[in-house]
Amino acid sequence: MQLTKQEQQAIFDAKAGASVNIAQLTMDAPVIPLKMTAGGPPLLLSDDPEYIRLPQAGAMRETLRPGIFRLYSYHVNAIKGQQTRITNVIENLGDKPMTVRLLRQAFPKPDNEYNLVGCEGLKQYWTSTPEEQGRIVAPGQSIAIDPKMENTLISYDDLSHGFYEIFIDQPARITTLQTTSDKSGPDANKQIHELQPIPAENNNAGRGFFPFSEYEVTTPDAYVMDTANGAVQIVIADGITDRWITGWSSDLDKPTILAGNYGVMYNMTIQRKHSDGRAWALITWNQRAEDQWCGGIAMAIMVNGELITIPSDCVKIGHAPQASVIKVFEPSEEPIKLVFSPPGASCLPIPLIFVPIEK
Fold it and tell me: pTM of this prediction?
């Protein structure tokens, strides 16, 4: 990828997250080799079927042991002319009172601008703080995991998205469901005995229990990206070089995959050099803009502890030549630390491209 002097200056002048135009956006840059170690708490994901077409239906149901887990729910009310309640319910399966404490939480305002909802979910998740006190659930009883989600009615074609890290001290059953506006999630949970079937086309992210939710990502010991060698890129969650994680769903008799690794955190440490004195610019663009349903991407990313919204000056990145400047790194030997999670509603992979620039 070759940048003109005008493009390089525009990148230098841009604020973090701002849009710029780059004429020659490609996926041709060499891919940075990565070492990935799985970890973190288990993840529950509910995104299949994404569009819930029944007034009352279960979308995901799994049982968990005591401990910490993460929950990512992503559903659309697909009933015309009717508001519904989409919520996550937790039931105490133990014989003692259960403490439910939210360590992180995100529930952006439901909307039909799905890119906006997916991006805002990541921002809220990373900036949230743990609840000081948990809620107590008696044995055999259930509550809504997020009262805000429970009390929000979803209009037709709006996306309801929740992302949580949760502590429990008793075994529990978690159900993601849709119900009518006049019925609570816990009441509907008692009436739901099986899940809505996964659509035959099966082109959503999936549903079920996945055994981990994080990757610690580093480069091989001998690898240091150097501005003198030109542009390089990180490719995450493409399903090829970075395989989608495997889990299982309570209603299936075979393993299931998390297509896109949504809800998975990538904690990356990238070593760098600037042997020719140029800076590194980290940029991204919508390389799948021509595909159906992929007209825009929007995300949030942590860069050396700073939360950056991509893009910061509009709702989403559309077609080339539009790109977004994530950050410019002046010469230094300090490693670059990124925390990335595939954003809901954005087609993958989203390239993270390091390009040498100079004023």
Answer: 0.96
